[in-house]
Write a structure and sequence with these properties.
- With about 400 residues, this protein is an alpha+beta fold.
- The protein has 13 helices and 18 strands.
- The longest helix has 21 residues.
- The structure holds zinc ion (ZN).
- Zinc ion (ZN) binds next to loops.
């Protein structure tokens, strides 16, 4: 099987499961099931019947000379109106590896896993299948989930032979595997490789996230009658803070250690053109690969907001919305990935992953590395998502070389 065949498979899957608006492989639905059936047909041609674990993850196994196992994973599900590569690229690259090794019994066992419901696009919980297998899913957190049409997650799961109450048994399947490595190929979904004109990147890990709501409280007042020095303008304090957060992101970005701070929402009260804003609420989303850096960024942001609030005669309160720790990948696998990418493409840029991936769930359980493919215009989760074919073919070659190296190591 050549990289060209992988691309042909991807196009075949896209044709089967897309409409004019893009891919429609929404997890637990009929098109997703059709995608899996199609993939099972490809596996059947290799003489492989996949096993489904208690969370609906599909595992295809090629027995090797030992039980040590290299896992290649990604997901066939997509967001509504999604792209042709997000998830599918990694699964098809896994199929290529199974095909390559079928005729020469590998020294280790190979498994390709198609994680169930990576996107969380229907019920709002991403990484559902992989987190169940990893033991980080609390069923109490998801049992109440309902989709837009009123279907309950428990019923959608049951329709696919999965019981929410026993989903965590997927851990037992994962624990039985003597895992040597977990490898995942994914489209970057961002503009970094494109900006460097590089086909392929080595992923250092997934970002940790600190997400907060900041509420600045001053005093609403008439815009005509209140002199500037006497104002308690909550919006200006929030705006100054947002600029300070950008400086914090700049301060902690060193070389390839990129970090981000984003103010994504702003709510102003009373929201009248003739009133000084008395209340302003903004969100702050901070991400970094290094836990200490993330902690320092958060401390700096808090301190900056307090100083700025005092300078504007307003108060500020912080509320945490969400947090996840960084998941750095295994240094020895990053090194092998670097070698594979350099050998094929001549250079191997390293970059962190802003989005989360199933790979992040595997980090506590086994050595993990990911490889990224060039993403046109940084677009993903839309029908425009693309990796131009020359970049795609190079990336597929680099990924197969990574698999070869890890299997042989
Ligand atoms: Zn994905």
């Amino acid at each position: 099987m050549s990289a060209q065949d992988v691309v042909a498979n991807l196009r075949e899957l896209a044709k089967l499961t897309s409409n004019a608006d893009g891919a429609q492989r929404l997890a637990w639905g009929p098109v997703w099931r059709e995608a899996r059936q199609w993939f099972n047909g490809k596996l059947a041609a290799l003489g492989i019947t996949p096993e489904i674990d208690a969370a609906g993850n599909s595992w295809a196994t090629l027995k090797g000379s030992s039980d040590r196992t290299v896992i290649i994973g990604s997901h066939l599900d997509s967001v509504p109106n999604g792209g042709w590569l997000d998830g599918a690229l990694g699964v098809m690259a896994g199929l290529e590896a199974l095909t390559t090794f079928r005729d020469r019994r590998p020294p280790v066992t190979l498994k390709v896993v198609d994680w169930a419901d990576e996107e969380g696009a229907r019920f709002g919980r991403s990484l559902l299948g992989s987190s169940a297998a990893a033991g980080s899913l609390q069923s109490a957190d998801v049992e109440h989930l309902v989709d837009k049409t009123g279907v309950r997650l428990v019923d959608a799961l049951r329709e696919n032979g999965v019981e929410l109450s026993t989903m965590s048994k997927a851990q037992e399947y994962l624990k039985r595997i003597d895992a040597k490595a977990y490898l995942e190929l994914h489209i970057e979904q961002g503009p970094v490789l494109e900006s460097m004109n590089r086909s392929t990147g080595v992923v250092q890990g997934t970002f940790g996230v600190e997400r907060h709501l900041l509420r600045f409280v001053g005093q609403a007042a008439h815009s005509g009658s209140t002199p500037i020095p006497m104002r308690k303008d909550a919006f200006l304090a929030a705006a100054e803070s947002a600029l300070a957060f950008r400086e914090i992101a700049r301060k902690y970005t060193t070389g390839s250690a990129r970090v981000v701070c984003t103010v994504g929402t702003v709510k102003v009260e009373p929201g009248i053109v003739t009133a000084v804003p008395g209340v302003c609420e903004i969100s702050l989303d901070q991400r970094a690969l290094d836990a200490h850096v993330l902690e320092a960024m958060l401390a700096d942001a808090r301190a900056a907001s307090w100083t700025i609030a005092a300078g504007n005669n307003v108060s500020v309160e912080w509320k945490r919305i969400w947090q996840i720790e960084p998941r750095p990948f295994a240094p020895h696998l990053i090194k092998v990935c670097h070698e594979a990418v350099s050998e094929v493409t001549g250079e191997a840029p390293h970059l962190p992953s802003g989005p989360l991936h199933d790979a992040a769930e595997m980090v506590p359980h086994m050595p993990v590395v990911m490889m990224f493919a060039y993403s046109s215009n940084g677009l993903s989760h839309c029908k425009e998502e693309d990796t131009p074919e020359p970049h795609l073919l190079k990336t597929l070659a680099a990924f197969q070389l990574l698999v070869e190296k890890v299997v042989a190591s």
